[in-house]
Specification:
Arc Repressor Mutant, subunit A; Jelly Rolls; about 280 residues
Length: about 280
């Protein structure tokens, strides 16, 4: 079931099984995706890492993730774009820059506790009923229900991951979001510190309190993720990839890649088999 608004608002709610799982690979500009697995023994690959998902697992993906389908038994898809639920008009914790989408360097996921499952089931049913409505209040109702769904998810995610509730998390969410937007142009911590009106030292201090990774590491990891994706999933030459992700010359890119991956870009590509490499 799909809702489209007058200003390009987009919401898609669908039960996905193996026969229609190609829907998950549709490219929707500026979209965010929630996968709620309602059966056991599902398998997907996100950015070349395989995830086994059982019943009641929820995974949150952005437009920047590379998703491959291995096996889908049943999953509920909730996909929306920024026009539907934009950043500016919603609280940071449950908005598009919230912890469910940009609060961590890993793919956010959690298991719905049995005692909370009924809330999610009822809310999904309300979504479906509202998508059948056709009046001028429909958009507002759907936005309210999506926000309620994200609030439920945020509470559970924070509790299960033991995420502290203090100001530094806002800084990390903002940093992760800016890295996602600008990593091809900005490779230095100082660049992001300038965008955030902070010093590099301040950012580093914030991260040391709530993360086991430095902001510099996160920038490098995002660049490397894009480099691996492009090497695996495209036919671009090494030279073209060099410029695509913001390096000035092949030598600099190759040295950066080998320092992080242990092999050169060409060697990495040669080891790729059918879009995947063996993770060691």
């Amino acid at each position: 079931m799909i809702y489209t608004g007058k200003n390009n608002e987009y919401l898609h709610i669908e039960t996905i099984v193996q026969d229609n799982c190609i829907i998950l690979k549709e490219q929707i500009p500026e979209s965010l995706m929630i996968l709620w697995f309602t059966s056991d023994n599902n398998s997907i690959t996100i950015d070349n890492i395989e995830f086994k998902a059982n019943k009641s697992t929820i995974i949150f993906l952005t437009e920047f993730h590379k998703l491959e389908i291995n096996k889908i038994n049943e999953v509920q898809l909730i996909r929306f774009n920024r026009a539907f639920f934009c950043i500016a008009n919603h609280d940071s914790e449950v908005g598009c820059k919230g912890i469910l989408f940009f609060g961590a360097s890993q793919v956010p996921a959690f298991m719905i506790p049995p005692e909370e499952l009924e809330k999610f089931t009822i809310l999904l049913r309300m979504f479906e009923m509202e998508l059948d409505s056709k009046d001028n209040l429909q958009l507002e109702m759907l936005e309210v229900m999506l926000k309620r769904f994200l609030i439920l998810c945020t509470r559970i995610y924070k509790e299960q991951k033991q995420i502290p509730n203090f100001k530094q998390l806002d800084m990390i969410r903002e940093f992760n979001y800016l890295v996602e937007k600008h990593f091809k142009s900005y490779h230095r911590l100082a660049d992001y510190a300038t965008l955030m009106n902070k010093s590099s030292k301040t950012l580093s201090n914030y991260f040391s309190k709530v993360s086991d990774k430095t902001p510099h590491q996160l920038i490098q990891e995002r660049i490397m993720l894009e480099a691996r994706r492009t090497l695996i999933y495209t036919d671009l030459s090494i030279k073209e990839i060099t410029y695509e992700i913001g390096f000035e010359d092949i030598q600099t890119f190759s040295r950066f890649f080998k320092n992080n991956e242990g092999v050169s870009p060409s060697e990495f590509r040669e080891k790729s088999v059918m879009g995947k490499i063996v993770n060691t």
